[in-house]
Every structure is written in structure tokens, then in C-alpha cells.
Write a structure and sequence with these properties.
Layout (H helix, E strand, L loop, with lengths): L6 E3 L5 E3 L7 E7 L8 H12 L4 E7 L11 H12 L4 E2 L12 H9 L13 E4 L5 E5 L9 H7 L1
Parallel strand pairs: 3-4, 4-5
Antiparallel strand pairs: 1-2, 3-6, 6-7
């Protein structure tokens, strides 16, 4: 299996084949709107603005599994992110990243880069996928988007 074999849902419920992102560097993040890390949306948008033209795509997966910090509908979450943080990167459907209902993409991501913990520990964990579809890095929530800027730049 490859990351390009997966299909996810966008915020409108439409199927998005990850093969559509072939040749792009991907930053995949599980997010929440009511978390201490929520201000990272600003850093994510800054990365997107800086590197999108060079081939970066950010896939934002809202997740309510950690402290119920992503309440509300996907429409409410999207409105919050666009109004407060001016996000313009792709926001996907709300998902689970651990457990029996976890998004299959996250099962794959975790199998590729599990670090000290296999499961996602909290909101705003980040995976970087290179242009060939290899999961090359995983970062915990406390790692800011600014801290991974140089790693993304090298892959572009």
C-alpha cells in the first residue's frame, strides 16, 4: 500500500483520492478548534502561503477525540478557521485518528512513522509526506509549524 491508494472525504463529504496529490509535499495534521495548540493554524497558513506555489499541500483533519476540543459541525469548524486564522488550505471531513473508527489513512500514517507511541497522542500531530509519497517525518503537537519550515523547504 502507498499513501496514494487512500481516498478521504473533504469537508463537503466528497471523495478525494490522495493520488491527486502525487508530486506534492504533504503536511497532514489532525486539528481542533478549542485546543491550546489551535493558534498553530496561523503557522500552518503561513507555511501554506510560503510554499504552496512550490508544491506544498496541507491536509487538515479536524478531530474531536482529544478533550472534545473540536465540537460542532464541519461547517462551523471551517467558518472558525477561515474567519479567525484565514486558512486557505484543504480542510477535510472530521475524523477519528485512533481506535475502532479511525480513518484508514491514519492507520497507514501511524504504521509508517510511529515514534515512541503508535497512537496519536493529541491534537496537531503532523506528518510530512515527500513528493514520492513516502511518510518521512512525524511531529508531536508541541512542534510548531515554524519548527518544521526548514524540513519542508528541503523536500520542495
Amino acid at each position: 500500500m502507498s499513501i496514494y491508494d487512500y481516498t478521504v472525504k473533504n469537508r463537503k463529504g466528497e471523495d478525494i483520492k490522495l493520488e491527486n496529490y502525487k508530486g506534492k509535499v504533504l503536511l497532514i495534521v489532525n486539528t481542533a478548534t478549542g485546543c491550546g495548540f489551535t493558534p498553530q493554524y496561523e503557522g500552518l497558513e503561513n507555511l501554506y502561503q510560503k510554499y504552496h506555489e512550490k508544491g506544498l499541500e496541507i491536509l487538515d483533519f479536524p478531530c474531536n477525540q482529544f478533550g472534545k476540543q473540536a465540537p460542532g459541525s464541519i461547517e462551523e469548524i471551517h467558518e472558525f478557521c477561515t474567519l479567525k486564522y484565514h486558512t486557505s488550505f484543504d480542510q477535510m471531513a472530521k475524523i477519528d485518528v485512533n481506535g475502532k473508527n479511525e480513518e484508514p489513512l491514519y492507520t497507514y500514517l501511524k504504521s509508517q512513522k510511529h515514534g515512541l507511541l503508535k497512537n496519536i497522542k493529541w491534537n496537531f500531530e503532523k506528518f510530512i509526506v515527500d513528493r514520492e509519497g513516502n511518510v518521512v517525518d512525524r511531529f508531536v503537537s508541541t512542534t510548531t509549524p515554524e519548527a518544521i519550515d526548514s524540513k519542508i523547504e528541503k523536500l520542495l
